[in-house]
Amino acid sequence: MQVIKQRKKPVSPPLVIAGSFILLIILGTLCLKLPIATTTSISWTDALFVATSATTVTGLSVFDPGTTLTVFGEVVLMGLIQFGGIGLMTFAVLILLLLRKKIGLQNRIYLQESLNQNSIGGIIKLVKIILTFVLSVQLFATIIMTFHWLPTFGFKDALYLSVFHVISAFNNAGFALFPDNLVGFANDPIVNLVLSALFILGGLGFTVIYDIYQKKSLREWSLHTKMMILGTIIINVVAVFTVFLLEYQNPATIGNMPLDEKILVSYFQGVTPRTAGFNTLNYGDMENSTILFTMVLMFIGAGSASTASGIKLTTFMVIILATLAFLRQQSEPKLLSRSIRIDTVIRSLAIATIGLFIVLSFIFLLSITEKLPFLPLAFEVVSAFGTVGLSMGITGQFSDIGEILLCIVMFVGRIGPLTLFFLLMKPKKVHYRYPYDQVYTG
Amino acid sequence: MQVIKQRKKPVSPPLVIAGSFILLIILGTLCLKLPIATTTSISWTDALFVATSATTVTGLSVFDPGTTLTVFGEVVLMGLIQFGGIGLMTFAVLILLLLRKKIGLQNRIYLQESLNQNSIGGIIKLVKIILTFVLSVQLFATIIMTFHWLPTFGFKDALYLSVFHVISAFNNAGFALFPDNLVGFANDPIVNLVLSALFILGGLGFTVIYDIYQKKSLREWSLHTKMMILGTIIINVVAVFTVFLLEYQNPATIGNMPLDEKILVSYFQGVTPRTAGFNTLNYGDMENSTILFTMVLMFIGAGSASTASGIKLTTFMVIILATLAFLRQQSEPKLLSRSIRIDTVIRSLAIATIGLFIVLSFIFLLSITEKLPFLPLAFEVVSAFGTVGLSMGITGQFSDIGEILLCIVMFVGRIGPLTLFFLLMKPKKVHYRYPYDQVYTG
Ligand SMILES: [K+]
Ligand SMILES: [K+]
């Protein structure tokens, strides 16, 4: 990871980020293909798929991890999730710090890109705090879960299951070691609340956590932090309420449950789609309206520089605010006594356009290669793009080509559409300006 | 239509446009509900649905117009299509001109809004040219079609059918008097080429036609005109080619046809979705990939101030150009040695966002009210929003509430999402500016 001092063209940050993920995926595929990793032999495509799914913290799987993977395989899975989720770059800094090496400017720039920070100063401090925070939270949650599962599974299994599911939850991976994911715990408040607290926290984004840690009062929070906290609360309340109403009378899901269970299950299904991917209900049984609503949530995702993917909650909010500002004939979007730069609006437009383009293109391609019904197929692609991992139950039915296409979607979703395009396109600053001409739109 | 001179608050143009359409729809509903309009009694909802579909030049129908409507009913349909398509405001000017009344400033402003023109000067001239052009083209096409259909139907029927289908085609209404729309003419080059030429022309937009008429050489064309001509050619070539490839092996559609027929049918199905709505194939038999592709085309639509709806081709192009400019780190989108203003980009963003919001909301609502499969339902909503009129064959299966929801989508699609929101929201110019704050997106 050390930088060659006299390098003429430093490798671009997007390339380092993408490259790290690819290396981790290759390493994961090789490990999962080892005979000691699985109880039955799996194909290379399946190994690649699950390695990609774990590294990108998606959670889609072509086999049941709990029965197909050995303990070694599960530990590999945990490692991929933890490294993929918290970010390779963050870990690289930890390793350098532990080795007491000086961190070069180029490495700081990579970190800056990967964490979406604007200034290089303080970036090392940020990373230290993030890692301390992450490990403390994971340790704390593991203790709670171990105590909770102790009576059912005994100490050894309770501890092991707790470590796995805490890592999977905090990193928003959505992998579970139970064949029906968390459906068996639909009525267990501790499992529901601890795991959802973990994935909501992980989805806020590290810059938000750092900002809250640094600032003494709520007023000093940056606009970004305020938007993330406010947005997360609003979107989660709306989502929980919507799922509750839409599924209220569906006998295949919550229709026949008592009210308190209806509420708990709706809560979980409302907060999980924006990236977590755990489920306590079968999505194949849900109403089409709930499925469509869930797809929108999956596309939006959670926070920038977090364990989440999708276009990100702030991108979505900026687009909504810009649209409202346009309708009110204001020159810029405003929120909480702050203006948002027009550059940020254009950036959001680009992210959403590319995101929509990717999702539509891959639904299109997969509807050519696969003979699967449309809605479950579209759901699967959006789930892969948002690295969510929810499925209507068709993940095992894709062809090899289909699996590889989904791997690409998960990878692009995780590194972000912009990173991909900055990789592919050569930016050139153009300073000339042509005369303006009117274009009628809409 | 004359303006009361001392009116204190002139009615806003969006209100006049929306109001005219509503009046025409009410009038159409009443006429179609008359016993002399139909061969069998139809419900009020069905009358409203078909009147809305005709006025908004959509072409969706809950009954077969050819068998259910009498000649009187068909003439009503033609009237609604012609007035709805070319625009009530254009006709109002014609009437005023014929009555030799002076056209007041307020009326000129309405016209300006409705035709998307920037200056009031020359607007009357524009309208005169538009009407002369429209009627000449329709007359010319009617003559060709009458000669073509003469041997099959005899003079009277050939003339009547020609008038109806020419009006329906030029206004992009997509209504046909044959029970299977134009499937019976799939192999008839004259019908295919004449009708498609009409609806492509009608979909370019009146400002484009006026610009081409005015300018002596191609170089003098405005950026808008160039974009429309270039965009129409590119999107149609791509669409025809895509339909051809996707359906090539589908035995239910073109799979078993000889090559020349494959090409002709693909041509028609490639150019029809952006607003025309005629079909020479059953959409219920097509591949899911073709259906998805067609939905994207229907959402995009054709030209501003034309007989088309959807977000409009230029809106789509501006969004793509802005995204590419952002990726190239250019400050503004550029095309053909012209820059596009950032205001236009924001306007396009707002139109696309509202369009997407409307489409998703109504698919969501209809998936609650209707027990219909997802893809045909989503297809129907996008078709209504783009006032296209293509259907996978489920239009007759909607509940009364479903029909009314689709009427709202057609109406909103036709007046345009922006017109709707400017009706509902009170614009207030705000000149203060808050301090900027960084928001991380994507
Ligand atoms: K996930
Ligand atoms: K139409």
UniProtKB/TrEMBL annotation, chains A, B:
Coiled-coil region: none
Q: Does the keyword Membrane apply?
A: yes
Q: Name one GO molecular function term.
A: potassium:chloride symporter activity
Q: Which UniProt keywords apply?
A: Cell membrane, Ion transport, Membrane, Potassium, Potassium transport, Transmembrane, Transmembrane helix, Transport
Q: Where in the cell is it found?
A: Cell membrane
Domain of life, per UniProt, equals Bacteria
Q: Could you give one GO CC term from the UniProt record? A: plasma membrane
Q: What membrane topology term does the record carry?
A: Multi-pass membrane protein
Q: Which residues cross the membrane?
A: 12-36, 42-63, 75-99, 119-147, 159-178, 190-213, 225-246, 291-324, 345-368, 374-392, 404-425
This protein's record includes keyword Transmembrane: yes
Name the principal localization, coarsely classed: membrane
Looking up InterPro entries in the UniProt record yields: Cat_transpt (IPR003445), TrkH (IPR004772)
One Pfam annotation, family name?
A: TrkH
Query: What is this protein's record name?
Result: Ktr system potassium transporter B
Tell me what organism the protein belongs to.
Answer: Psychrobacillus lasiicapitis
